[in-house]
């Protein structure tokens, strides 16, 4: 709305300079105490449609008798101006306090018309001594109301004019409302309205020649005073786009136990990757010693299980979860479950083909013991520590009781399309290096440039974080507050692109064939890409969480 308002004001100001010049030739704008200062009502219309304007007295406001139409200049007619004598009498240096302009009994039809206008953000425009000001008809109270039928509609009935003058000339006019003076027009029944106005005069030393400077400066457009300028309505006007959903943006996600488990597993995989890179850089994985990498993966996975348990349980409790034991079981099985199922299937295939890739029974027992004696206890200990950490989720804004409806979104803002956009750019940054990795893991090449691989990994993390933050901002700007899972899915979508690349590599870049080799390639690559999905998803969510908390700390959320 702020951007639309600026555009609307700019359109009006485009003709203001010419209008002011034409009108100033007919009046020198000098007044004596008690002289009536001309006030003209111009036009009204829905704020979202600047070209859709109507005459002011097409609505049942107070009207002066008789109505005096001001002769318009050619440019004013083209601009849609239709000035008539306004409903309020303002005399130079004469103050008024809650003066009744008129009393109206609105019929049911007139009440319905005002209600419709308020729902469409109707505004009006007036001129006081050729100085324009704008205002809204009323306000809609929709706080905490999920159903639009539960909203309340209020018509403003009291204007407060604050007029600044220099000697015998008017310099500036500010208009605000009395927030206590409203009329409920929600129901379909006649309503009595006392339209009132207050006038206050203040002297300043700004010369008359500079009174239009604030209108000419584009940086000062926000200084133009609107009808709903009181603190309450000003907050509502500023709450547009991502600001308007501050009461819902920190509403906890659905399936929060699964979400916390995914964050915990992703954090563990990130830790494993960092440790592997450290070992690689110091020269542990020298050529033709592939067994060292696999051994390190098993051992480091077991030892970092506590990180997954602590992160998942702590975050789950911050989300006000209560069944932390179930959360730990989910954390322990979210990664191990798919790995176990895949391993059982592929090892069965290997045994059937009698290849050396089939693990002996003794090796399987050792892996099971490592999982049972190290990984699981550390996971539980980490979970207990996370549960007892008593950490609280520090949301910058208070969450409302009733969730706000998410407006209909265009197709390109749906989750799958956002994931496609989020994963493409990070994947394109690592595309070349992935080929050499695949050629090493699934071929006979030796990979030794771990430093370059580490740099590429850092680039991957940075791009993933930035692209996820950008998409999260666009999502919030569209007033879609379901960003928790979306940020995770968008961050992890690079793993899906990696798996899609597997099909290209298999068919175009390798000579692999046969059921056994095909099963091994796509089976284990599915596990690897799934791990990347969890890790990058956690990175994307953490970056988005930091960004969202930062921007919502900068606004007033009460």
TrEMBL record:
Q: Which of UniProt's keywords are assigned here?
A: Endosome, Golgi apparatus, Membrane, Signal, Transmembrane, Transmembrane helix
Q: Which InterPro entries match?
A: EMP70, MFS_trans_sf
Predominant localisation class: membrane
Name a GO CC annotation attached to this entry. Golgi membrane
Which compartments does it reside in? Endosome membrane; Golgi apparatus membrane
Swiss-Prot/TrEMBL GO biological process terms: protein localization to membrane
Q: Which Pfam families match?
A: EMP70
Its topology with respect to the membrane?
A: Multi-pass membrane protein
Q: Which family does it belong to?
A: Belongs to the nonaspanin (TM9SF) (TC 9.A.2) family.
Q: What is this protein called?
A: Transmembrane 9 superfamily member
What organism does the record attribute this protein to? Gossypium tomentosum (Hawaiian cotton)
């Amino acid at each position: 709305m702020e951007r639309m308002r600026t555009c609307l004001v700019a359109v009006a100001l485009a003709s203001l300079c010419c209008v002011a010049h034409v009108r100033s030739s007919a009046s020198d704008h000098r007044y004596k105490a008690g002289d009536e200062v001309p006030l003209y009502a111009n036009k009204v219309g829905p704020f979202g449609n600047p070209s859709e304007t109507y005459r002011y007295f097409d609505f049942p406001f107070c009207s002066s008798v008789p109505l005096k139409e001001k002769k318009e200049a050619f440019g004013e007619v083209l601009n849609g101006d239709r000035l008539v004598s306004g409903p309020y009498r303002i005399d130079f240096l004469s103050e008024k306090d809650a003066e009744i302009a008129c009393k109206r009994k609105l019929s049911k039809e007139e009440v319905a018309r005002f209600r419709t206008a308020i729902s469409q953000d109707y505004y009006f425009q007036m001129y006081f001594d050729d100085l324009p000001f704008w205002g809204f008809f009323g306000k809609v109270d929709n706080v905490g109301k999920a159903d639009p039928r539960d909203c309340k509609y209020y018509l403003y009935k009291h204007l407060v004019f604050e007029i600044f003058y220099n000697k015998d000339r008017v310099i500036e006019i500010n208009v605000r409302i009395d927030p206590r003076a409203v009329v409920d027009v929600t129901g379909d029944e006649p309503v009595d309205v006392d339209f009132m106005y207050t006038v206050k005069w203040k002297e300043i030393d700004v010369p008359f020649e500079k009174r239009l400077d604030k209108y000419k400066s584009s940086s000062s457009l926000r200084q133009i005073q609107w009808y709903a300028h009181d603190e309450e309505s000003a907050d509502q006007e500023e709450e547009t786009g991502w600001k308007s959903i501050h009461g819902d943006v920190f509403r906890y996600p659905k399936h929060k136990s699964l979400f916390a488990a995914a964050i915990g597993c992703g954090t563990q995989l990130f830790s494993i990757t960092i440790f592997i890179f450290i070992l690689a850089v110091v020269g542990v994985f020298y050529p033709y010693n592939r067994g060292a990498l696999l051994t390190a993966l098993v051992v480091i996975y077991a030892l970092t299980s506590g990180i997954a348990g602590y992160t998942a349980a702590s975050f789950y409790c911050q989300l006000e979860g209560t069944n932390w034991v179930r959360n730990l079981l989910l954390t322990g099985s979210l990664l191990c479950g798919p790995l176990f199922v895949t391993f059982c299937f592929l090892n069965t295939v290997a045994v059937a083909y009698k290849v050396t890739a089939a693990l002996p029974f003794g090796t399987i027992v050792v892996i099971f013991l490592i999982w049972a004696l190290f990984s699981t206890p550390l996971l539980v200990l980490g979970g207990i520590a996370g549960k007892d950490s008593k950490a609280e989720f520090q949301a910058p804004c208070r969450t409302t009781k009733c969730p706000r409806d998410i407006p209909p979104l265009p197709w390109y803002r749906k989750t799958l399309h956002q994931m496609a956009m989020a994963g493409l750019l990070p994947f394109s940054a690592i595309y070349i290096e992935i080929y050499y990795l695949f050629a090493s893991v699934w071929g006979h090449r030796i990979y030794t440039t771990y430093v370059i691989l580490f740099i590429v990994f850092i680039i991957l993390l940075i791009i993933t974080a930035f692209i996820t933050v950008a998409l999260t901002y666009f999502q919030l700007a569209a007033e879609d507050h379901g960003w928790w899972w979306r940020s995770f899915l968008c961050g992890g979508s690079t793993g899906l692109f990696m798996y899609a690349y597997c099909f290209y590599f298999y068919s175009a870049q390798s000579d692999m064939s046969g059921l056994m080799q095909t099963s091994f390639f796509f089976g284990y690559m599915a596990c690897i890409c799934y791990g990347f999905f969890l890790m990058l998803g956690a990175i994307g969510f953490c970056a988005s969480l930091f960004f969202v908390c930062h921007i919502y700390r900068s606004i007033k959320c009460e």
